Amino acid sequence: MRRYIFSICTTCGLLACAPAESKVADKSANQVKLETDSIPVIILRSYFNSNENISLSQLQDGLNSGRIACTADVQTKLKTKMRLSDSLKTTTLRDFPLADTSLYLVTSIDSVTPSLLMTSLNEVHFLRDRNHYPLWIPDNSKRDWQKAITSYTHTGVTALTRRTGSVLNTMGTQKYLELIQPVLGNPEILHVSNEVSMQPSCDYASMKMKFATSKEHFEILNLLGADVVELTGNHNLDVGADPYVASMQWYKDHGMKTFGGGLSPEEAAAPLIMTLKDGKKIAWIGFNEFCPCGECADTKMGANRYDDSKASAAIKALRSDVDYILACVQFGETDSYTPSPTQKRISKFLIDSGVDVVIGSQAHQPQTFEFYHGKMIFYGIGNFMFDQIHRLGVRQAYFLECYIYNGKIIQFIPQFTYMGDDRRPAPASAEQAHIIKKSVYLPGFFQGK
Question: Which of 131, 162, 199, 405 is the most buried (most CB within 10 A)?
C-alpha cells in the first residue's frame, strides 16, 4: 500500500516543498507545506502529447502568453498564486482537442477526466507523490488527502503455465518478476486476470492447450500483492473441478477477492463490491462471451457467461448501490489491434447500460481503446504474464495504472510492457512503447462520440 505523510500549515506562497532534484522556477517564491485547506492545480494533456512533464516556468510563460489555457474555476486563484497577468485564456474540458500533440489545459482536481492524461509538474506527478506536488490553491473543503485517492492497477492476461512454467522452474519466481515489479509498484488495489488453476505440481513441457499452474508458482500472485482476481478466462477448468475448487480456496486463504467466476452460477455472476478509504463503493462485474472450452458456469462452476439481458439486469441492480462499475469481458479472440464488431457492440451496450469503463480481458495483444459517451473502453490490454513470443503483437502489452477519486476512476495511465525472448514481463523501452502507441492510439476514437 502506498503511504503519504502530510503536514499542515498556513499558506504563504506559491510552491509546496519540492524534491531536492526538482528545478523550481521561481527561487524567490516562498515554499509551503501541503495543507488540508488547499487543492492541487492539475495540468492535463492529450494521450497524443508525449511530453509527460512541464516546468513551473514553462507553465507560467504559457499561461501569460495564452499558449496554455485554464478552466474558469481556477482562473482567479491561479492568477494570484502564480502572479500572472489579468488576461488568462480560459476554455472548457469539452472544447479541448483530445487528439492534440502539444497543448495543455490547467484545471482543478475535481475536473480531471480520464480522456486526458495528468502531466507531471517540475518532475512531480500529483497522483504518485502528492506530498511534493508544487502547485496548490486555497480551498475550504477540508479534504483528507490520505483518504481521498485510491491507487488501483489493472493488468492483462496472466497464465503461469507451459513455457512460462518452464522458465519459472529454471530461474525462480523472484528472478522472473524482477523487471516488472518495480514499474508495477505497490498500488492499494492490484487486479490480476488469472486464467489457470492450481495443481500441486505440473509437467509444463507436456502442456499445449490445456493449462495448469503449480502450487509453488501460484505464489507469484502473493509476491505481486494481488488483491482482486478476475476469473472470466477460458482455461480455469482445463484440468477439472478439483484444481478449480482448490484455487478458489487458495484465493480466500490469501485474502484475494474474486469476480467473473465461481463455484456456482450464482457465485460466478455475483459482482465484487469494495468500499474505498473515502467510503465510496466500487464494483467489478465479469463475463465470458463465447466460453469456447466449456468453461462457463451455466449449471456448475466456472466463468460467468455473457448475455445482454443478464448484464443489463446486473448493472441496473448495482447502479443504486455503488459509485462506479468496471465491466471486464473475456471476448472472443482476435489477432488484431482492432476490436471485432461484437467487441464494439457489447462494450458500447455495457456503457449504455450504465457501466463506467469496459476492459477486455481476452486479448493476447493490445488493442485500440475508445472514449465513448464520456467513458473509456479498453478493448484489450494484452498479455501480462504468459509465454507467447511468436509474433510482435503478443509480445506487446500495457497495464493500467488507475486512480480513484470521489468515487470514480479519474485516470487510466497506460504502462507499456514487452515480453522478451526470456519470456519475462518487462517495461517497454521508449521505442517499443512508441510502436505500441501507434497501434492503439487512434485519433478518431477520442472525439467523445
Answer: 162
Q: In terms of Cα–Cα distance, which of 217, 63, 235 is closest to 157?
A: 235
Global pTM value: 0.92
Provide the pLDDT for residue 28: 31
The maximal CA–CA distance of the chain, rounded, in angstroms, is 72
Contact 324, 407 (CB under 8 A): yes
SS3 237: coil
Cβ distance 182 to 426 under 8 Å?
A: no
Alpha carbons 305 and 300: distance in angstroms, whole number: 12
- Which residue spans of the chain are classified as CATH 3.60.21.10? 148-446
Residue 313: count other Cβ atoms within 10 Å of its Cβ: 13
Rounded to the nearest 5 degrees, what angle is found at the Cα of 100, between the Cα atoms of 149 and 441?
Answer: 75
Give tens-digit pLDDT for 311-360.
999 999 999 999 999 999 999 999 999 999 999 999 999 999 999 999 99
Query: Residue 431 corresponds to which cell in the numbers above?
Result: 521505442
Considering the four listed CATH numbers 1.10.260.40, 3.60.21.10, 3.90.470.20, 3.20.20.60, the one that applies to the domain covering 148-446 is 3.60.21.10
Angle between helices 162-171 and 215-224 (to 10 degrees): 80
